[in-house]
Amino acid sequence: MKDEKLQKALARMGLGSRRQMEDVIRSGRVSINSAPATIGDRVTIGDEIRVDGRLIRYKAENEKRRRVLAYYKPEGEICSATDPEGRPTVFERLPKLTHDRWVMVGRLDINSTGLLLFTNDGELAHRLMHPSNEINREYAVRVLGEVTPEIAKNLTAGVMLDDGMAQFEDIKEGGGEGVNKWYHVKLKEGRNREVRRLFESQGLKVSRLLRTRYGSISLPKELRTGRFLELDKKDINSLTDLVSLRPRQDTGLQGTAKRKQDRIKDKPLKARRDYQSDRKRNESTRNYTKESSRRNTNDKGNRQRSDRPTDNRDRRSK
Question: What is the pTM of this model?
């Protein structure tokens, strides 16, 4: 049975990135067969791996079913598993996994929308995000102002940002009238707010940003805001081909899950309300419930008070 490096195995099983797993190993939080693990250790089927004392169900790379989700991120959600400020996150609407976890491929800022990919294969996520693989990302961008031929030339030739040179692979007009016009741009990396910062370097402000493609996967037309679709074997293999990963026989949707997905494609689910609307609606419902409860309590008290004088008068008359 072929073995593999511990940090790679932990990342592949969705516990975090390779770098994060190396830090976890160095801190002494990982053990193999009851012995403390070190960087460079290798594991195979039959090894007992524990992280913080919790047993990790190890599977060989070719045994685990590879899954990928396409999610339509709405505005207002953050790309993080948790948020100390209590803001909604993109993970809250994903299906739950048993003994596994979803790994996000890239990210979008809180004000951006569009395609986000998630996978349970940490190695696939790592390769799709790594700059050396130059995976194309496409965006539809609404810009306040006009992108002149000179500005377009600057943006495709390269602009110096705070964290180094950046450029669009391509930029095309996408329609619109007045001061707000749409453009379609391509990038081969995903630095923080890179699309917005490139336009800002030319004195332009992005008012809307929608990711329409990541690698070989385009935002499905039948996918609505706040919803997800699970990719089939053909689409997943197109992603693995981009980053030179071997395909797996047990990949994507099967059986009942595939038939259910096909029905959703034929009859798409409605877009989900954004969290702000949900919160306002829930707050209104709570306020209405409290007001109704207060009124019922007052009405009950009034009835009781109206009864008492009658009883007292009855007693005095006797």
Answer: 0.73
